[in-house]
Amino acid sequence: MKRVFAVLSLLLCFGCDAPIEQPVARTKERPVVNIPLKLRQENWVGSRDEGSCVHATMISLFRWQGRYKMADYWRRTHENGEWPDDMAAKFDRAGVRYAYVENGDVGFLEWACRTRRGCGVTVMGGEHMVALVHLDSKWAALLDNNMVSKFIWIPRETFIAEWKASYGWAIAPVYTPAAPPPQ
Amino acid sequence: MNRILLSVCLLCAVFIACSACYADSTTVNGVLAEKRVVNLPNDQDKWYVSVVGNDGDSIYRSVLRWFGENAALVDLKNKVHFCQVASGTPIYQERYAKNISTLPTVRVQKPDGTVIYEASGANIPMSAEGLHAAIAGGIDCAQGIRPILPWRRYMNNKPCPGPCPGPDTQPVEPDPAPQPIDNGGAPEVDAPSAAAGAILGAVGISVIAVCVVLVIVGSVLAGAIAQWKKGSKG
Fold first, then answer.
1. What is the mean pLDDT of residues A110-117?
2. Architecture in CATH of A42-173
3. Nearest residue on chain A to B77, judged by CA atoms?
4. Of A160, B60, B121, B144, which has fewest CB within 10 angstroms of its CB?
5. Which residues of chain A lie closer than 8 angstroms to B42, CB-CB?
6. Is 90 exceeded by the pLDDT of residue B168?
7. Residue B197 contacts residue B34 (beta carbons within 8 Å)
8. Considering only alpha carbons, which residue of chain B is nearest residue A63?
9. In order of start, what are the domains of chain B with their CATH numbers?
């Protein structure tokens, strides 16, 4: 009788327990700034025979953040290489909302990827700019405007060392990133 | 003579005090320039509202107009990442075409992509107020909030006789959706406008001018009184 009572008590206890919510599997998008292939701007040679990597990177990010008309305008009106101050002045004149650092502050890169906006980052000793489209505790992903067909994944520390050795300039338009894929 | 020296010293003190008030300003080529202050928006917790449709579709255009005119929807738009997506664009083809069945579509998502409200085609409410109420209901449901509607306040113990009421029977103005954490309010990264700078500069110059005039008038009065006293003594 005692055993039956114990079994019944156990069953009642199970019945009173709160329902356990099953964990829902969520697939995080990688890279977080997953710019569609058709929106990626390839680098082009400007009138001074210089590459336009900074502008190409900004155009890709403009498109990712829904600024298509600004992207088209920028493609038509800007070319050649850029310096941080000149680029800031051009953004100011055009009324672009942006943020940038040129002191190698990794916090800026983390902010840009945490908010899914991405940013342009200098590499190759400052000779080239690419888009940083992902940064987590282990990996960084870059979108090179000289090869837009695929993302380049490299270890986080390797990328940060490269960036800091390249003047540590990073610049990002600050608008609305594309919505994540539905879950 | 001592009083004149005192006046000059006072004048200098006023100038030093005024310049200290404007320590944040720097002079560039003789022009007062405000230092750039950048507040990076930590808005990774903002939700997303996507309005997807064909540019030629009247419902799509109406919904977009509602988000620009209806106060409640404008308020909502300002609190989320608002994505306007036209069909036929690359962003639509690569990120929306696979997961949208009918156009136009209004979709509300959490930052991780979880869809908490979606209406498309004929299921989109016919008024801006209805759409806002439907979205608000979706947000409340997603957060486990179940507001008691007025006509149900005394019917909690009764079984639901049929399907739940649609969005258009909900209150026109439900509780406002909780604002996602923004870590410092609205994102503002633009430099102060030229007009604001000009007003600030004008106010500063006015303050300095008034101080200078007051010091000069005070010095003159003090001198005159001293002379008068000297004359009356003589």
1. 96
2. Alpha-Beta Complex (3.90)
3. A176
4. B144
5. 111, 114-115
6. no
7. yes
8. B91
9. 2-35+193-233 (no CATH), 48-169 (3.40.30.10)
